[in-house]
């Protein structure tokens, strides 16, 4: 398969679409955790209960009015190969927990992969919507459409005082996790990020790496999400997070402007050195690739690099992950083979830009 065809099949729509503030905010994601009334939580239920939950939720969503939403597809974890599940994790469509620890789990995906509904992860149902740019409000609206459709046909585990009941106490209440994936090279280079992260923590927000809890912020990409799910409405939580993200966007823009003014030639040199590494390397590790991709994306945003799509960061941050590389290669790769394959894929992807 050619790289171009592979990319067209592998890349989710949010990775190559424009959105508000998309030069800094790569994506917005909203996730709603729900459980069925009078059914044991996934952490303690048996196979029969798990299969009933999958069938019940799948039957409802697969019969959803096709005029209002694109086709859904059901994928059961037990029917997927380990590599296929890990690729879904790298695309942010399922959690590592669903891939690795939920033998009776499943996911229902919309055709464009903007919506994914995980079944039998930590909770019976986790509705997720991903959109490009800063669109938390719209992502919540899209997730609520699915949530309302389900709630019309099933009874949720709900308490009048506590709200939606979840397997983990930290999700009780709205069951909402809203997050944005942001590219913050200016704040990292100027070291302002070291002050911003503690300040965000004090505001009840969590800052993590590109793949969530326990992951490193590769390529100056951070996930910022709410930590509190109780005491406010879903809309208020999303509005609060949006307001804070807008402040971070302004700080990142100011940091970039300052770098151009005070270190213009040094910054340009950094950008083009990284471009040269990506364009000519024969072996490249994931950390170096992420750093260089971040520099190149910054150069594109600042107008230093012409005729290269700004979506290259979104795409290659995912496509150069270990399991995507093995999928493209058609089989398992040793670590050193992945580094060679990663370099080749990046060179080919850049060549596609120059051939346009």
Walk me through what this model shows.
With 356 residues, the chain is α+β, with helices and mostly antiparallel strands. Helix content is 47%, strand content 15%. It contains twelve helices and ten strands. An eight-stranded antiparallel sheet has the order 2-3-4-5-1-8-10-9, with helices on one face. A hairpin with a 5-residue loop joins strand 4 (115-119) and strand 5. It starts with a helix and ends with a helix. The model has no long low-confidence stretch (mean pLDDT 89).
Our count of helices gives 12
Question: Which stretches of 5+ consecutive residues score pLDDT under 50?
Answer: none
Helix content: 40-55%
Strand content: 15-25%
The main sheet orders its strands as 2-3-4-5-1-8-10-9
Radius of gyration: 21 Å
Overall pLDDT level = 89
Question: Could you tell me the number of beta strands?
Answer: 10
Distance between the termini: 19 Å
What is the secondary structure topology, with strand pairs?
Elements: H1 3-10, E1 25-34, H2 47-62, E2 72-76, H3 82-90, H4 96-101, E3 106-110, E4 115-119, E5 125-132, H5 136-151, E6 158-159, E7 163-164, E8 176-183, H6 185-189, H7 193-202, E9 205-208, E10 221-226, H8 234-280, H9 286-301, H10 312-319, H11 322-329, H12 335-354
Antiparallel strand pairs: 1-5, 1-8, 2-3, 3-4, 4-5, 6-7, 8-10, 9-10
Helix pairs in contact: 3-11, 8-9, 9-10, 11-12
């Amino acid at each position: 398969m050619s790289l171009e065809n592979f990319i067209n099949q592998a890349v989710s729509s949010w990775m190559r679409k424009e959105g508000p503030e998309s030069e800094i905010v790569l994506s917005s994601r909203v996730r709603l955790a729900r459980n069925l009334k009078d059914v044991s939580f996934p952490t303690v239920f048996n196979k029969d209960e798990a299969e009933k939950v999958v069938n019940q939720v799948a039957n409802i969503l697969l019969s959803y009015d096709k005029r209002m939403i694109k086709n859904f597809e059901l994928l059961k974890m037990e029917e997927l190969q380990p590599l296929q599940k890990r690729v879904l994790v790298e695309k942010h469509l399922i959690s590592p927990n669903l891939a690795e620890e939920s033998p009776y789990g499943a996911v229902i995906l919309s055709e464009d992969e903007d919506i994914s509904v995980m079944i039998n992860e930590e909770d019976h149902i986790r509705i997720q919507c991903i959109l490009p740019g800063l669109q938390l409000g719209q992502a919540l609206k899209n997730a609520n459409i699915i949530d309302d459709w389900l709630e019309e046909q099933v009874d949720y585990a709900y308490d009048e005082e506590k709200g939606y009941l979840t397997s983990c106490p930290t999700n009780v209440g709205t069951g909402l996790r809203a997050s944005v994936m942001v590219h913050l090279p200016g704040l990292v280079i100027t070291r302002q990020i070291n002050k911003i992260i503690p300040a965000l923590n004090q505001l009840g927000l969590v800052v993590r790496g590109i793949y969530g809890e326990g992951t490193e912020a590769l390529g100056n990409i951070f996930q910022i999400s709410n930590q509190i799910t109780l005491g406010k409405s879903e809309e208020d939580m999303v509005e609060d997070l949006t307001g804070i993200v807008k402040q971070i966007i302004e700080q990142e823009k100011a940091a970039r402007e300052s770098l151009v003014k005070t270190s213009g030639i040094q910054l340009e040199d950094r950008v083009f050195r990284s471009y040269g590494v990506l364009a000519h390397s024969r072996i490249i590790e994931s950390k170096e690739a992420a750093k260089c991709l971040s520099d190149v994306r910054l150069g594109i945003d600042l107008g230093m690099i012409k005729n290269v799509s700004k979506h290259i960061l979104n795409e290659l941050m995912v496509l150069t992950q270990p399991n995507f590389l093995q999928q493209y290669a058609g089989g398992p790769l040793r670590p050193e083979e992945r580094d060679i394959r990663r370099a080749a894929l990046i060179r080919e992807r850049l060549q596609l830009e120059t051939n346009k």
